[in-house]
């Protein structure tokens, strides 16, 4: 059974790589080709836009607020990108190229994987530190696939990891749900090339919102309290990373749902009660200023792909935008993050998600408040004198 579960994730990772290769075959890999402009095209824009997704672009999997029509205004009639923008979300759980495909289908425009920045995207920067270490990836979707595509070589999802330890979850016999499985993987027989029972977990990465809170809290407390080897004596805590720290977010349900930040609060409270030292962790995602600085750099590279002759990459030291607009629905996350990041960030708050107030948010006031993302784009283009 353990080998079967591991076979599933290996097959899923292979499928994900195949999808990426398919994308690369059917789409030009060169952003300069995809977003290039003719010699008669207007001068390069002095502004860029970052959109949150949940509660701004989508609710569940449904576009909201006139999103498809509004987003198309950022493209030329030929379908090339006219205004540099990206999606800056604390969500994730799937590779960026897969989310780009999904957004392309839902919005009816060509979205590049480079225009998708997940909460876990900065984990790429930690590959060298943990490349050959055993790590556990936590969350919905395919967290282990995400980390494998980033370059981590020894990754187990928390589902896989827990399956190796009999009775680690005392409530497992009372759980009636089952993980969906594909028949084509039934005959695969594969095992990890390392011993899960003796090799310590060197890092824990919460990639997306955890699904089974009860089990995950128990297993993480075991890993983090024992130096990375459940069932043994207390040891030094392995590094713990969260892709985001949202307490709540807007999903398909009318009111907000608890997010990764809520899970972190619960884990921290329990860990601190059962150990004689506090939980140590690092959180990424908005409102961390690092995330906004990274997004600005990605937008600048996107502009260089759109206008390859404007300047060389070596000349890009600081952000060249006069303004970058953060369009979001969560004052504590989107607006607060833009405020912390400072120039050139400017914030636009929509009423389609977490925020639904009549006036501006009193604690984290945005530079502009609008009803929908379509209103936000209209406001930005009018302010920047773009037809």
Short overview:
The chain is α/β, with parallel strands linked by helices and 387 residues long. The protein has helices spanning 2-26, 31-35, 67-72, 96-107, 127-130, 143-150, 158-163, 213-225, 260-274, 289-306, 331-341, 373-383, and strands at 47-51, 58-59, 62-63, 85-88, 116-117, 134-138, 154-157, 203-206, 240-242, 248-249, 257-258, 282-283, 323-328, 345-350, 368-370. A hairpin with a 2-residue loop joins strand 2 (58-59) and strand 3 (62-63).
Overall description:
Helix 1 crosses helix 6. Helix 4 links the parallel strand 4 and strand 5. The protein is built from 12 helices and 15 strands. It is elongated and about 65 Å long. About 12% of the residues have low confidence. It has 387 residues and is α/β, with parallel strands linked by helices.
User: Per DSSP, what share of the residues sits in E-state strands of 2 or more residues?
Assistant: 5-15%
Give the overall shape, derived from the CA principal axes.
elongated
The description of the largest β-sheet is:
6 strands, parallel
- Averaging pLDDT over every residue, what do you get? 87
Element order: H for helix, E for strand: HHEEEHEHEHEHEHEHEEEHEHEHEEH
Record the strand order, biggest sheet.
5-4-1-13-14-15
| Total beta strands | 15
Poorly predicted regions are 4-9, 20-41, 180-190, 312-318
What structural class is derived from the secondary structure elements?
alpha/beta
Computed Rg: 22 Å
Helix residue percentage: 25-40%
Q: What's the end-to-end separation, in Å? A: 60 Å
The number of helical runs is 12
